[in-house]
Description:
By secondary structure, the protein is of the alpha/beta class. The chain has helices at about 35-50, 65-80, 95-105, 110-135, 140-145, and strands spanning about 5, 10-20, 25-30, 50-55, 85-90.
Amino acid sequence: MRFLAIDYGNKRTGLAICDNSETITSPLEVVASDGSLLDRVASVIRREQAQAIVIGLPLNMDDSEGPQARRTREFAGKLQQRIKVPMEFFDERLSSFAAEDRLVELDLTRKGKRKRLDAVAAAAILEAFLENRHEKKITPTDESS
C-alpha cells in the first residue's frame, strides 16, 4: 500500500511517501502551513496516488496530548473532510531528532537543513509506522519458517 506521511507543524509541514511494497520511504516536500495547506496536501495525495495517510501525532513523553497534538488532530479532521483516503495517527515522538541525525551527514547549510528537516521527519515517522505495521503481521509460526 502506498502511504503518505504528514509531519504537521505550525509553520511548515513535511510530507514523505513510500512505494507500493512499503519498503522504500522518501522525503517528498515541505509545504508552508498557511491557508493553502489543505489544498496542497490534497493535491499531493492525488498526484502521488496515496492509498492511506499516516499523520505524526506529537505526544508528550507521558503519553498525554498537548496543544500541538490537538492542532494536529484539528488539521487531520479538516483534511479528512476533503479526501476519501483512510487516515491514521502514529506517535511521532523523537522523529525530529532522528531527522536531524540524518541531515548531519549531508553537506548542507543550516538553511538547507531547515528546509528539508520536516520532510525527513515525515520519512522517519513513515519508516517507524511501516516497521511497526510489519512487526504486527509476523506471528510466532511465521518466524520459524
